[in-house]
C-alpha cells in the first residue's frame, strides 16, 4: 500500500481522481474502463484531471481430462475420440484479455507384431504422431505411450469481466494391422494477459 500526500491545490472528485484546483473547474472526463477507478499510477486526462488506470492482470489456468480406459481399434479415417476443453475467465474487470493456450496430449496405443500396424493422432486437425511397424516379427504386442504439447495460435480475446469456452478435438486415424488405442488424456494450460498487450 502506498500513501500519497497532497496539498490544498488538489482535490479528489467523485470518481477518485485528483483535480488540480489551480486549473479551474475542467469538464468531467468519462472513466474509460468498465470498472471502478483505481489509485495508482497517476495520469493526466485532457481536462487536467489526475486519474489512475487500473492495474494489468495475468493468470494461468489449467484443465485436464481423459477418455478413460478403452480398448478400441484405431479407425482408418480420422475420428474424434476425445475433446480437450477449458473455460477461461478474464481476471480483469477493466481490460479485455488475450489468451494463449498450450495443449498437452497423451495417447496410449497397442500395435500388434507381424504386420503393418500403423496409427496416427492429431489435435485441432494438426497431425502430430504417426507410428508404423512398432513391433518386429515374432515379438509381442507393443504398447506405445506418446506425449505431445502444442501451442494453440488461434488468438482469442475475452471481454473485460467475461468468460469463454475453448475446445480442441483429439482425433485418431490411419489405423491398420489391428492397431488399437487404450487411452487419450489431455491437459490445457492457458496464459491470460489483461492490460499487458
Write structural notes for this entry.
With 197 residues, this protein is mainly beta. It has two domains: 1-54, no CATH class; 57-194, Jelly Rolls (Sandwich), CATH 2.60.120. It is 0% helix and 55% strand. It has strands spanning 10-12, 18-20, 43-44, 49-51, 57-66, 72-73, 79-89, 97-111, 118-123, 126-132, 142-158, 163-176, 180-194. Strands 5, 6, 8, 11 and 13 form a five-stranded antiparallel beta sheet that branches. It has a four-stranded antiparallel beta sheet with strand order 1-2-4-3, with no helix packed on it. A hairpin with a 5-residue loop joins strand 1 (10-12) and strand 2 (18-20). It is rod-shaped, with a radius of gyration of 27 Å. The relative contact order is 0.27.
Q: What is the terminal-to-terminal distance? A: 26 Å
What CATH architecture of the largest domain do you see?
Sandwich
Give the overall shape: rod-shaped
Strand content: over 45%
Provide the residue-averaged pLDDT.
76
What is the helix content?
under 10%
CATH topology of the largest domain: the name is: Jelly Rolls
Rg, Å, rounded: 27 Å
- Helix count? 0
Number of domains: 2
Order of helices and strands: EEEEEEEEEEEEE
Number of strands: 13
Low-confidence stretches: none
Name of the CATH first level of the largest domain: Mainly Beta
Question: Which structural category fits the helices and strands?
Answer: mainly beta
Main sheet properties: 5 strands, antiparallel
Amino acid at each position: 500500500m502506498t500513501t500519497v500526500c497532497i496539498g490544498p491545490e488538489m482535490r479528489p472528485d467523485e470518481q477518485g481522481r485528483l483535480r488540480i484546483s489551480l486549473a479551474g473547474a475542467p469538464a468531467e472526463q468519462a472513466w474509460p474502463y468498465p470498472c471502478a477507478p483505481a489509485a495508482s499510477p497517476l495520469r493526466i486526462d485532457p481536462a487536467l484531471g489526475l486519474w489512475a488506470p487500473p492495474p494489468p492482470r495475468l493468470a494461468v489456468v489449467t484443465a485436464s481430462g481423459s477418455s478413460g480406459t478403452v480398448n478400441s481399434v484405431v479407425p482408418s479415417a480420422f475420428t474424434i475420440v476425445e475433446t480437450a476443453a477449458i473455460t477461461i475467465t478474464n481476471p480483469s474487470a477493466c481490460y479485455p484479455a488475450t489468451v494463449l493456450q498450450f495443449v498437452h496430449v497423451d495417447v496410449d496405443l497397442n500395435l500388434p507384431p507381424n504386420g503393418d500396424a500403423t496409427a496416427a493422432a492429431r489435435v485441432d486437425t494438426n497431425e502430430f504422431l504417426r507410428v508404423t511397424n512398432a513391433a518386429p516379427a515374432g515379438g509381442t504386442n507393443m504398447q506405445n505411450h506418446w506425449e505431445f504439447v502444442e501451442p494453440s495460435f488461434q488468438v482469442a480475446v475475452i471481454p473485460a469481466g467475461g468468460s469463454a469456452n475453448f475446445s480442441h478435438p483429439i482425433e485418431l486415424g490411419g489405423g491398420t494391422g489391428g492397431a488399437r488405442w487404450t487411452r487419450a488424456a489431455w491437459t490445457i494450460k492457458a496464459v491470460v494477459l489483461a492490460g499487458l498487450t
